[in-house]
Specification:
The complex is a heterodimer of chains A (about 260) and B (about 290). Helices cover about 80% and strands about 0% of the residues of chain A. Chain A is mainly alpha-helical. Chain A is globular, with a radius of gyration of 22 Å. Chain B has 13 helices and no strands. Helix content of chain B is about 65%, strand content about 0%. Classes of the chains: A mainly alpha (about 260), B mainly alpha (about 290).
């Protein structure tokens, strides 16, 4: 199993990525120390709509942090195709089936690899959250940071859920068919978004999606968000395991 | 086993672990922060010092050319196996902190009933409908956000304890390891971590109690690590322990402790009783398996 996981680690350029993550974290820490939210230069200070003082440096770091979270979601999601595609191209699956391994070891390694990746990124994101939070200004900045951080576990769960749907497709149907299905779904979502941008009520977005309305919504739904944060990992892991069992079942029937 | 070489490796690990972590802790202290009263978000940052022991572990292996085996004897113990009923130790890791914290808080209320305050959760800023979810939240958040605990366990249980056990035997190793781990926390104990700043015998009594806590908590962690050959259950248990899972805790008015108790540190000692009992049981089981009893 260790060997299979290492193979996937190599196929995603794991060593390079680990160095990027470590250097990125050190850089992020250095920049945050150099530009804390407590800096009082007037150029950085602004007021929110409800009259609270906010430092634009905090806002800048929050934006970087939020972009990192979303970027990582996409990255892990992209790995599902990459780790299965690499095996198909190199005809590794047939070779592995001839080795004295447990019959579900190959499938288990794929699920485990994505789960470990999600855990590692979750840890890094939490670390960045701690760094970002430690130097931000009291008040609305720290509240906003807490709100962003509380969404990290549910978002990582979303990655796992997406992998729980994609992995069976890629392993059972093959990379070509699975990619076609994925492109069709992504394009479908894309069409809906473009359709909304062309014909929808764009004022509704500007009225409902800004920091203030987000914070108000968060404050009135703290219990629901906390509940979601607590339960989402449990439900996700259960569904992830079910997906693994289903993939194993159909894969064994194919053989 | 080459005892001389293993001792050298152990001392190198301890030197790196203490030196690097104390740089973080002392930076926190020198910049004027105290555990109680200063920016609580800085506490989170200094808690990243918890990652240093595993870094010291990796550095020691790299410097002494010990290699980086992930599983098996003399490894970094990163494997996960649920076979042969090992899953029970993962459950132990998840739920045991809740059990001993709840018993500990129950004991505090039995001995000092004046501490009971049915409205104290409001002071703590906890919504009433969240109270039943608190242990579950602590367990899940602890298990998910266990990277900091992984930092400590990867070093203490993943490197120091197996070496100490081989060098001095299980019983001595448990106590020496506990004291080392307790002393490692000393800089933070001196600025109010766990016990605050205002108690008779400050800070020596705090450091001493921290050593006792680390010894008995450490036995449980060693026990589950040895039974599973993995540091993950210990990591989970440590993280859940740090998340302080308890329902009774929100009904204990800690502000009254100074009036009710002869020494505020007594509250922590009472809380420690279940840990000592369970830790002692684990020590007996551990020594019995190693044939030292």
């Amino acid at each position: 199993m260790g060997g299979l996981l290492y193979k996937d680690f190599v196929s995603i350029n794991g060593k390079k990525l680990v160095w990027i993550l470590i250097i990125g974290t050190v850089l992020f820490f250095g920049l945050r120390v150099a530009f804390p939210g407590t800096m009082n230069q007037e150029a950085f200070l602004t007021m929110t709509e409800d009259g609270q003082e906010m430092n634009l440096l905090d806002y800048l770091f929050f934006s970087i942090f939020a972009c990192c979270i979303i970027g990582i979601l996409g990255l892990v999601n992209g790995w599902v195709a990459k780790i299965v595609d690499g095996d198909t191209k190199n005809k590794i699956r047939g070779y592995i089936s001839s080795l004295p391994l447990e019959k579900n070891a190959y499938i288990a390694s794929k699920y485990l690899f994505i789960a470990i990746s999600a855990y590692v990124f979750l840890s890094f994101e939490m670390m960045w959250g701690v760094i970002c939070n430690a130097f931000c200004r009291e008040g609305v900045s720290s509240e906003l940071m807490a709100a962003i951080c509380s969404f990290i576990p549910p978002l990582i769960c979303l990655v796992l859920l997406s992998a729980a749907i994609e992995l069976p497709l890629f392993i059972l149907l093959g990379v070509q068919k699975a990619k076609l299905i994925k492109i069709a779904v992504v394009m479908g979502i894309g069409f809906v978004i473009v359709g909304f941008l062309l014909f929808g009520n764009l004022n509704w977005i500007s009225e409902n999606f800004n920091i203030l309305t987000f914070m108000n919504w968060y404050e009135t739904h703290t219990f629901e968000v906390a509940f979601l944060t607590i339960l989402s990992p449990v439900i996700t892991l259960a569904l992830y395991y079910v997906s693994y069992r289903i993939t194993c079942f159909f894969s064994n029937q194919e053989v | 086993m080459d005892k001389k070489l293993e001792s050298k490796r152990l001392f190198l690990y301890l030197a790196l672990s203490f030196f690097l972590t104390w740089i973080v802790f002392f930076t926190y202290i020198i910049t004027g922060h105290k555990w109680d009263g200063s920016n609580p978000r800085m506490e989170g940052l200094s808690a990243l010092g918890m990652l240093i022991p595993v870094l010291a572990h990796v550095l020691t292996r790299w410097i002494t050319k010990e290699g980086f085996p992930l599983t098996g004897k003399g490894s970094m113990m990163l494997g996960i196996s649920l076979k042969n009923k090992k899953w029970m130790f993962y459950l132990f890791a998840l739920f045991m902190p809740w059990i001993y914290f709840e018993i500990g808080h129950g004991l505090s209320l039995l001995i000092y009933p004046d501490l009971f305050d049915p409205e104290y959760y409001k002071v703590m800023g906890i919504a009433k409908n969240m109270i039943p979810l608190l242990p579950l939240a602590a367990i899940i958040n602890g298990a998910i956000g266990s990277f900091a605990a992984f930092g400590e366990e990867g070093g203490w249980r993943g490197y120091m304890m197996p070496k100490l056990i081989e060098l001095v035997g299980t019983k001595k190793a448990v106590f020496i390891g506990g004291i080392i781990w307790g002393v490692w926390h000393a800089p933070l104990t001196c600025v109010g971590h766990n016990f605050g700043l205002d108690y008779p015998g400050f800070p020596y009594l705090g450091i001493l109690i921290m050593c006792v806590d680390c010894t008995f908590m450490g036995v449980m962690l060693i026990y589950i690590t040895q039974k599973t050959n993995s540091i993950w259950p210990a990591t989970i248990m440590h993280a859940v322990n740090n998340a302080n899972p308890s329902i009774l805790a929100v009904y204990i008015n800690t502000e009254r402790a100074a009036e009710v108790m002869p020494n505020p540190i007594v509250g922590f000692v009472i809380l420690l009783i279940p840990t000592i009992v369970i830790g002692s049981i684990c020590l007996v089981l551990l020594c019995r398996e190693k044939g030292t009893i």
